[in-house]
Amino acid sequence: MNLRDTRLKAVILAGGFGTRLRPLSCTRPKLLFPVVNKPILDWTLERLAEIGVKEVILAVNYMAETLMQHYGSARYGMKISYSTEERPLGTGGPVKKAEKLIGHKEPFLVLNGDILTNMNYAQLLEQHRENGAVATIALCEVDDPSRYGIVELTEEKQITRFIEKPAREEAPTRLANAGIYIFDPELFDYIPSDRPVSIERETFPILSSERKLYGHHFRGLWVDVGKFADYVKANHVFLDLNQKEKRLRNNTRAKNQADIIEPSIIGSGTNIQEKSMIGPYAIIGDNVTVGRGVHIENAIVFSNTIISNFASIKGAVIGEGVSIGKRVRIEDECVIGDHSAIRDNVTLSRAVTVCPFREVLENATTSKCLM
User: Fold this and answer.
1) Is the peptide bond before 205 cis (omega within 30 degrees of 0)?
2) What burial class does residue 334 get, using C-beta atoms within 10 Å of its C-beta: 0-12 exposed, 13-18 middle, 19+ buried?
3) pTM
4) CATH of domain 243-370
5) For 248-270, what is each residue's pLDDT tens digit?
6) Which tens digit of pLDDT belongs to each residue from 157-184?
7) How does strand 222-224 pair with strand 115-117?
8) Start-end ranges of CATH 3.90.550.10 in the chain?
9) Catalytic residues
10) Measured between alpha carbons, how far is 56 from 366 in angstroms, rounded to an integer?
11) Which residue, among 151, 162, 237, 246, has the nearest Cα to 204 in the 3D structure?
């Protein structure tokens, strides 16, 4: 099936608060977090455009204006519309609220915005139509079923049971809801209006009992960017996939004595001074200034940050517009909020988080949040 021959619309659930990604989600919606220097949402939009989707509806809530200003009314040749929640409506409520924009003529695709995948949406739609389903859920195998909705399938791919986030020992399978769905417009009849609705806990069990819920098991790339470990994993996965690209962008200046170790990626307009060691697994954004003798390894550095001479950053995520002083040490699992300042000679030990706009003058040797 060629999706270019359909009128398939895609709804992207983009209203989450990203609470597990604080402090960086305090200043940006989750879907604008960069993965290999490109926002999460752009990876999804690009793929939808490639397969022929013509219209995308963003269901927005948290920092809706930021997303609307960033993407406007069109992107990658697709029309972009917005369905704005005045209050959080769960996972089903946003779909119901967007009913008029979606229409009742064709099946439609719904994606959790924080999922990165290469799955074949055409196969998902084809199976949905063959089964005459009201809802078809993309499924993938996971190591920890307690984080996801888990299903049991018949040989005909019908979902007989849907268990939302069971304990590991109680999970009947490891087939998890991948956050990617094809729905028929009939689904709107199963979602109440004007209140929050959990589509997993309220709607899917009813559809399952009526034998209208099906699953599509796929085995491709799938990353759920729910917490920082997942976010770092997503960057590593996409860095590995894209390592054949040029490490240095056209406008990047690196002194001859700087050592850049693959896989790494460095954004446009970034300046790296001599005797610095960058990588492996260094992801550095646009317009970053890296001083002399700096060591950056297994780290993500957002755009417009300044890293002074002889600083060391290992296993950390550094927000946008951060100022890092001379001989600063930032260690594994540290997260530095946007526009903060880490002064000269400060050491931040494992799992220290720094809130946005915070100035840090002293060492932090235990895991804590500096507010």
Assistant:
1) no
2) buried
3) 0.90
4) 2.160.10.10
5) 555 666 666 788 899 999 999 99
6) 999 887 878 888 778 888 888 999 999 9
7) antiparallel
8) 3-227
9) 165
10) 45
11) 162
